[in-house]
Every structure is written in C-alpha cells, then in structure tokens.
Design a protein that fits this description.
By secondary structure, this protein is α/β, with parallel strands linked by helices. The chain is built from 8 helices and 5 strands; from the N terminus they run ααβαβαβααααββ. Strands 2-1-3-4-5 form a 5-stranded mixed sheet. The chain is globular and about 65 Å long. It binds zinc ion (ZN). Zinc ion binds next to α5. Keywords: Lyase, Metal-binding, Zinc.
C-alpha cells in the first residue's frame, strides 16, 4: 500500500488518514457569466468564493443546478453575501439585445436560445435600453430572482448584491 501511495496524485492522498484537506470557508456566493474574461478569482483575488457560473449570469429557481448551489452556499455559516455579477460586452446579453431590436437572430445553437429565453423576454420588454443598460437590468432581474427564493432556504439576513464587471477598466461597479 505504501508503494502504491507514492504513485497517487496529491488530491487523492488528501483523503487518506493523516492528510486532512483544509475546510472551505467562502464568504461569497458568486453567480457570474461563463465568459473567460470574468474570472471571480481574478476580480476578487483576496476572497474565498463559492461559485456558480453560466451563460449571461442567470439565476432561475427552476434551474436545479443553480438552486442546489445556492441552497448549499447559504447553509455555510461563512457566506455573508450573494453576488450576481454581469459584465460589459456579454455575448449572451448582446444576442438577446439584437433579437429585441429586430436584427437577424445570431446563429446560436437552440440550447442557447432555450437558456436565454428569460433574458430575451426581458430585452423585448425594454427595447429602449442600450446593451449596457440591458446588462444592468439583467443583473437586477437575477438579484430579484435570488431574493424571491432566499427566504425558503435560510433565515439569515444575507446581502444580495448586483454588480457589473467592466472588462476593459477591470472594475466592479455596484448595480443594486
Ligand atoms: Zn457574459
């Protein structure tokens, strides 16, 4: 066994006796976009973060993955804020914006249009907004979606904040 253990990678070794992995103590639950230019570890390098990322930073209660992640995150006593983080130049927001403006539907796979259904409806209901403003409104919508279910998951008064990350300025701007 000892010989075999020498061939195991460190991750496997941590589960053996005498190798206790450090406990996670995230203070933030981050709901962000998949976009590679918006990495939570780069935006908040000093924080320990519990992460949920998807196209155009959506939070929908019918999304079992997002809901389970939120439920687990708020069960951690260390979590004190839920951050919904949109970003400038978001391809998902831009696609919905284009459709709402009557432009030709970008050639995305049907699964993406399915995923972006709610955001497309939001864009069509607010056609006067710029893409930047639609990105902000999308963040506010997701903040509201989180707030709508949060009370069913925890009694703790957690902050739910909406933010926009400017990928050129590399700055986080408060939206809500
Ligand atoms: Zn994006």
């Amino acid at each position: 066994m000892e010989d075999y253990a020498t061939y195991l990678p460190p991750l496997v070794l941590t589960h053996q006796e005498g190798h206790t992995p450090p406990k996670q103590k995230p203070t933030i639950f981050w709901i962000g976009c998949c976009d590679a230019k918006v990495s939570e570890a780069e935006v908040l390098p000093e924080k320990e973060i519990f992460v949920q990322r998807n196209i155009a930073n959506q939070f929908q209660a019918i999304d079992a993955n997002a809901l389970a992640s939120l439920a687990y995150a708020v069960s951690l006593s260390t979590i004190d804020e839920i951050m919904i983080v949109g970003h400038t130049d978001c391809g998902g927001v831009q696609a919905c914006y284009d459709v709402a403006q009557g432009k030709a539907r970008p050639p995305l796979h049907w699964s993406l249009w399915n995923w972006l259904h709610g955001l497309t409806i939001l864009a069509k209901a607010h056609t006067k907004l710029t893409p930047y403003q639609l990105t902000q409104l999308n963040v506010i919508q997701q903040v509201n979606n989180v707030r709508a279910v949060l009370g069913t998951l925890t009694n703790r008064p957690l902050k739910v904040g909406g933010y926009l990350y400017d990928i050129v300025e590399k700055k986080l701007v408060v939206v809500e």
